[in-house]
Here is the input.
Amino acid sequence: MVNGRFRCIGSTQHLKSKFGQGYTLMMKIKNADEHGASSVVRKIQHFVETTFSGSVLKDVHQGLIHFHLTDLSLRLGKVFGIAERMRASFGVEDYSITQTTLEQVFISFAQSQVEPDDVRQVTCTGLCSSMRRCVCCCMFPQQIPSIPNSPIVDC
Here is the structure.
């Protein structure tokens, strides 16, 4: 629920497929302690950003590179094929490709939450007046703006 409205329902896989935002690509570089590791990271970053439009480098730490692939049209098989080629070309020791987690889906819903003071500014449709609850104005007793002389609706 976000601002008193039910936003999603379904199995874990259904929610991740419908509301997920791409894939996570994690790569571990061979010999990450060597001095040339930063140039390998730059090459991998350039390759990923040009191959997967909208990709975002999230983190680089001790030879582990974390990308977020935001292109929703990507097919998992294509991503694995490209990752295998990168494994041979760039000296990638290991990699993983995962869907957006359910936690990330719920966090994206939570980010769309607005403060209670801002909810009052939502324009009411008046369709909820028959229920004696205002579900589109949410949480505050008020008149329905779209219906002149309407009663105060107790949320």
Summary: The mean pLDDT is 75. Strands lie at 23-29, 56-61, 64-69, 92-99, 142-143, 152-153. Residues 37-51 form the longest helix (15 residues). The first strand starts at residue 23 and ends at 29.
